[in-house]
Amino acid sequence: MQFRHKIAGGDFANAGKVASSVKKILRQLNIDHTISKRVVIALYEGEVNVVAHAYSGIVEVEIDESRIRITLTEKGPGIEDIEKAMEEGYSTATPQVREMGFGAGMGLSNMKRNSDSMKITSTPGEGTVVELINNIRANAG
Amino acid sequence: MKITDITEKLDLKVLAGTDGLKTDITGGYVSDLLSDVMGNAREGQVWITLQTHQNTIAVASLKDLAAIIIVKGAKPESDTISKANSENIPLLSTTLDTFTIAGLLFELLKME
Ligand SMILES: Nc1ncnc2c1ncn2[C@@H]1O[C@H](COP(=O)(O)OP(=O)(O)O)[C@@H](O)[C@H]1O
Ligand SMILES: [Mg+2]
Q: What gap in Å lies between CA B81 and CA A77, rounded to an integer?
């Protein structure tokens, strides 16, 4: 099973829509709740990062018997220092974004903690690709 | 304990999401940072916050939280209210501050 969604940079009103629709699908597929909860957290944070830090992005979700693979591909400023960006608390979010309770610098660490594999590739000035994989345990649920 | 029990005992105003009032409460979580709630709140908890914008409803819905309590009588935006209604997330309001309402809710849930 495979599907894709578009995300517009700056569109805070719709942040979480992709995570919400993926959550519904994981429920329908009877994916183990501990796994789907992790996927929802990681995907939400990935989605918010496109909204908060990039210009536009595409989320591709691929589900098979063994894993859920999410790829967020966006056009944006890119990340110069990925290691630094991964540090909990580090954020370049604007004061307005922080006031809304975003920009705590916890997004990437939430994504890391809630996926079995996370890969970030970024080209400064062009954009970023984040791949998140969550394995589905045999005979779960 | 259900949401209806705490709205009564803690004198909370129900602003939206009345269809979700029968939900059972498992505990509470206090935070104004969305990533903190995403990462650490658990299903069935009541979320106490001063945030009033509609992204709180998206977070509460994704995390299957039981309700949101907005503190210090802050008024949510109208799109927050309509989203709470469509997602069935009870949006509650208190005039008390976070420390006080969290303490009262803690005491209530402890008695169960
Ligand atoms: N898709 C992205 N494009 C550009 N920069 C990003 C992206 N994702 C994350 N970053 C950078 O990494 C920092 C930390 O990200 P994150 O942990 O999600 O915290 P937050 O989004 O709250 O700032 C961001 O503030 C930003 O500087
Ligand atoms: Mg983030």
A: 34
